[in-house]
Each structure stands twice: as structure tokens, then as C-alpha cells.
Design goal:
The structure holds 2 protein chains of 2 kinds. By secondary structure, chain A is mainly α. Chain A is built from 11 helices and 4 strands. Chain A has a two-stranded parallel ribbon. In chain A, strands 2-3 form a two-stranded parallel sheet. The longest helix of chain A is centred in the N-terminal third of the chain and has 20 residues. Chain B has one domain: Nitrile hydratase, beta subunit (Cyclin A, domain 1, Orthogonal Bundle). Chain B contains 5 helices and no strands. Classes of the chains: A mainly alpha, B mainly alpha.
Chain lengths: 222, 107
């Protein structure tokens, strides 16, 4: 892994990754914390297992349902753009962590989401952020040279496209509403949802322009 | 003053396009933090967690991985609030390591 660093070395690399020893240390340390908290009656093993299930549940599929509905129902899209949290709630999706702003791509306008300070991400819709999203390189450069970052992700925007970069924070998260791919008229909402990739909802991919989008959908069980 | 976590706009190399698996211990860190912050416990808010790893020093910040930072911040915050001490955690850690090593040597 040329771009990563051995855990606990000097850190000027874009992403600190634990090696096997670091992961074992992390496991033992959190188990030690759990044991202390359990002894004090503050937390139980059963609660932890339930919470792990809860945080494993969200994934691409929830965001894809929101996007597919917005493509299919203009009135819904309007409500979603006005208040993302309420829009998600209409589909039974609870955004618990923060407010949600949905930003719409259009011809000539592309949106990109980052969290420069930390790792803020619409977790209740998309699950955990990908490793590159929390990397120092993405956090630093997405706001400095978004077009070049997008190029690295294989996104080739038409000349003159405006790129809007959204810096997330603890109180406000963003979801990109990608452009509906051409040739999808008449498709059902369920079929449309299958087209929507995680990366397109972060803004580092466009739909219907690369073969990559379908392979990503196939790879992710969610 | 600009904090060490405030890196937006800095120069940096290529984005490492990695999709690392989410490990069990990392999920446990998130789960326990969430539970400690829930309405029945209210022991660590997200702001307190962030304050933890944004103030525990640049050396730790650069040395530790994402979830390890959060774990260290959880312990620091709980200690500040008098919920537990590092000493208690270290004692449990020593016990868990001994048991793990015994398991390794017998298994």
C-alpha cells in the first residue's frame, strides 16, 4: 500500500491504517473499556450488539430510494430539496445525526461533498464513510482543487461546469441528487434505485457515463 | 489559531482510493460511543468526542487511525468526567492481554 503508512509511524501520509498489531491493540483496548463500563453498570453486551446491528443497517440502498423517488416525483423532489430530513422521513428513513441538505446536480452544475474537519457524513442514509472520504488528502484537496480531485475519480465534467463543494459539519450533512441518466424514461422507481451508486451521492461519480457505476452497485450488498 | 485537524485547503498528494473493510473493533468503538451519548446516558456528546481528538495533541492525531483516535477520545472524556480512570482501563487491558496470550500459547 504505497499511499498509506504503517500504523504508529510518523504521520504525514494521507490515511493512517492500523497493521495487524494495531488492530489487535484496538480490539483489546475497546474490550477493556467495555469491561470497565459493564462493571459500573453503564453498558451491557446485549446493548452493544444491538447498536452494532443498527449502525450496520444503513447503506447505499437508502440514499438510492430517496434519489429514485425524487427522479420519479417532481413534487417530492421539491419537498426534499426544501428539507432533506423531512423528505427522507416521508420514505420512513430517519436521519438522526443532523440536518440534511440535498443538493441537486443539473447540466452545468456538479456538487461535491466533503468534511474537511473530520468525517461528517450522512451515516443514517449511506452508512459509514469510505476510507478515502476520511483521508487527509481528500479532506484537504476537495475544497482546494475539486476539479482535479474529480479527475482522479474519473469524473470528466463538461467545459464550464460549475462545481459546488459542500463542507459538512456536525449539524448539517449533505446528499447529492445526481442527474437522472438518459434513456431511463419509463423505468420503475425500484429499477431506478438500482442505478444509483454511493459515489454518485457523494459527488465523486456521475451516473450513466461510466461502466464503473454498475460494477459498484453489484459489489455492494446494500 | 488553526487546529491540527483543520486541513481543508492544504496541499496533499493523491487521494488514496481505498475501500477498507469496517472491522469489528471499529464497529464496537462506534457502538459504545453512540450508547454513551444516547438519551439515557448522556455521557459523551459528539461535540465532546471531537473536542477530545482535536485537543489531545497532534502527535496522537497523526499516529492513530481514525477509530483509534475516537477510542482514545472516548477514554479521555470519560476520565475527565470521572466515569472511569486510565488506570482502570489499563488494568483490564493487561488482564485481556494475558488471557489472549494464554489462549495463543494453548491453542
Amino acid at each position: 500500500m504505497a499511499h498509506t503508512e504503517h500504523a504508529h509511524d510518523h504521520g504525514h501520509e494521507p490515511l493512517v491504517i492500523e497493521d495487524d498489531a494495531g488492530n489487535l491493540e484496538g480490539l483489546h483496548l475497546i474490550e477493556a473499556v467495555q469491561a470497565v463500563l459493564a462493571r459500573k453498570g453503564l453498558i451491557s453486551a446485549g446493548e452493544i450488539m444491538l447498536e452494532i446491528q443498527a449502525i450496520e443497517a444503513p447503506g447505499r440502498h437508502l440514499g438510492a430510494r430517496i434519489v429514485a423517488r425524487a427522479w420519479s416525483d417532481p413534487a417530492y423532489k421539491q419537498r426534499l430539496l426544501e428539507n432533506g430530513k423531512n423528505g427522507a422521513a416521508e420514505l420512513g428513513i430517519k436521519v438522526g445525526e443532523a440536518q440534511l441538505e440535498v443538493v441537486e446536480n443539473a447540466p452545468g452544475v456538479h456538487n461535491l461533498v466533503v468534511c474537511t474537519l473530520c468525517s461528517c457524513y450522512p451515516r443514517s442514509i449511506l452508512g459509514q464513510p469510505p476510507s478515502w472520504y476520511i483521508s487527509k488528502a481528500y479532506r484537504a484537496r476537495a475544497v482546494r482543487e475539486p476539479a482535479r480531485v474529480l479527475e482522479e475519480f474519473g469524473v470528466d465534467l463538461p467545459e464550464g461546469t460549475v462545481i459546488r463543494v459542500h463542507d459538512s459539519n456536525a449539524d448539517l450533512r449533505y446528499l447529492v441528487l445526481p442527474e437522472r441518466p438518459k434513456g431511463t424514461e419509463g423505468m420503475s422507481e425500484e429499477a431506478l434505485a438500482e442505478l444509483v451508486t454511493r459515489d454518485s451521492m457523494i459527488g465523486v461519480a456521475r451516473l450513466g457515463t461510466e461502466a464503473a457505476s454498475s460494477s459498484q452497485t453489484a459489489r455492494e450488498p446494500n | 489559531m488553526r487546529g491540527y485537524h483543520d486541513i481543508g485547503g492544504n496541499a496533499a498528494g493523491p487521494v488514496p482510493k481505498l475501500e477498507l473493510p469496517w472491522l469489528f473493533w471499529e464497529k464496537k468503538v462506534e457502538a459504545i460511543r453512540n450508547l454513551l451519548g444516547d438519551g439515557t446516558r448522556r455521557l459523551i456528546s459528539l461535540d465532546e468526542l471531537r473536542h477530545g481528538f482535536e485537543s489531545f495533541g497532534v502527535e496522537k492525531y497523526k499516529r492513530y487511525s481514525f477509530y483509534r483516535r475516537r477510542l482514545e477520545a472516548v477514554i479521555d472524556t470519560l476520565e475527565v468526567k470521572g466515569v472511569l480512570t486510565r488506570g482502570e482501563v489499563d488494568a483490564e487491558l493487561a488482564r485481556i492481554r494475558r488471557e489472549w496470550e494464554d489462549g495463543e500459547s494453548h491453542g
